[in-house]
Amino acid sequence: MTEAHAPLILSAPDPAHPTLRWITLNRPEARNAWTEPMIRLFITLLDEAEADDSTRVVLLTGAGAAFSAGGDLKAMAEHTGMFAGGPVELRSRYARGIQEIPRRLARFDKPIIAVINGPAVGAGLDLTTMCDLRFAAAGARFGSTFVTLGLVPGDGGAALLARTVGLPNALDLVLTGRLIDADEALKIGLVHAVLPFAELRAAAVERALLIARNAPLAVRLTKSAAIRSMNLPLDVALELAATYQGVVQNTADHDEGVRAILERRPPRFEGR
């Protein structure tokens, strides 16, 4: 099957765990570099996953040897696709194109785990920072390589990386453009765990199931509270927490959770 006819991104529930959904970047011959059609499809698949009540956690990975190489170097060299146009047109292309990914993931209210099967470079690295948890294969490498190409992180990656690993670590990566291995990524807090490749997916699924077994609305609002409160004054963050608590404390899942503890049995949450 040629690239023109192959799905650029795959999305399907985990066959063994229907509460989990895998989204797979599927341009392995281009190391899963982004194209404009991929961006539009990715947004659509996120919308579908968010609307699907049976999906409680999304796992994001790449097909083939790489997680994502970020931008397509061939398109960069030819100034085509998402790299075409003068300064004004390119500014608009970024705002209406790849920047839609961090905007959409910032609003995505279900947990999403990056399962980093191989190199995550440039916008590929930035994509991992848009996810909530990050599991990496031992052989994965990471780099914010924009400056080595005479570019800046046009997808907002400098800010996203700083939020993930702190400004000093982010500056080291974005100003040098150097590649780091998975062990260094773990040391600076870029990833949560490093696993042998053969164990990567199973470990990510295990963590996803820990999340998925909890009350779905409580999980979604807890994620929202954590992310939205990062830059809020304390009194505003407390008001948001009280509002969310008022919502979930009036759900059937809350009553079920309390009963389950009192009856010493696992809860059966239904998302209502």
Describe how the helices and strands are arranged.
Layout: E1 9-14, E2 17-25, H1 36-51, E3 57-62, H2 73-78, H3 87-96, H4 100-107, E4 112-116, E5 120-121, H5 123-129, E6 133-137, E7 141-143, H6 157-165, H7 167-176, E8 179-181, H8 182-187, E9 193-195, H9 197-212, H10 216-228, H11 234-248, H12 252-262
Parallel strand pairs: 2-3, 3-4, 4-6, 5-7, 6-9
Antiparallel strand pairs: 1-2, 7-8
Description of the structure:
This protein is an alpha/beta fold and 272 residues long. The chain folds into 2 domains: 9-212, 2-enoyl-CoA Hydratase, Chain A, domain 1; 216-262, Orthogonal Bundle (Lyase 2-enoyl-coa Hydratase, Chain  A, domain 2), CATH 1.10.12.10. It contains 12 helices and 9 strands. The strands form 2 sheets. Strands 1-2-3-4-6-9 form a 6-stranded mixed sheet, with helices on both faces. The model has no long low-confidence stretch (mean pLDDT 94).
Cα end-to-end separation: 43 Å
Structural class: alpha/beta
> Helix share of residues?
40-55%
Overall domain count: 2
Order the strands across the largest sheet as they lie in space.
1-2-3-4-6-9
**Alpha-carbon Rg, integer:** 19 Å
Beta strand %:
15-25%
User: What is the total tally of β strands?
Assistant: 9
Order of secondary-structure elements: EEHEHHHEEHEEHHEHEHHHH
Please tell me the CATH architecture of the largest domain by its name.
Answer: Alpha-Beta Complex
On the 0 to 100 scale, the average pLDDT is 94
Net shape:
globular
Q: If helices are DSSP runs of H or I spanning 4 or more residues, what is the number of helices?
A: 12
pLDDT < 50 runs, ≥5 residues: none
CATH class of the largest domain: Alpha Beta
Largest sheet features:
6 strands, mixed
State the fourth-level CATH superfamily of the largest domain.
2-enoyl-CoA Hydratase, Chain A, domain 1
Instruction: Look up the CATH topology of the largest domain.
Output: 2-enoyl-CoA Hydratase, Chain A, domain 1
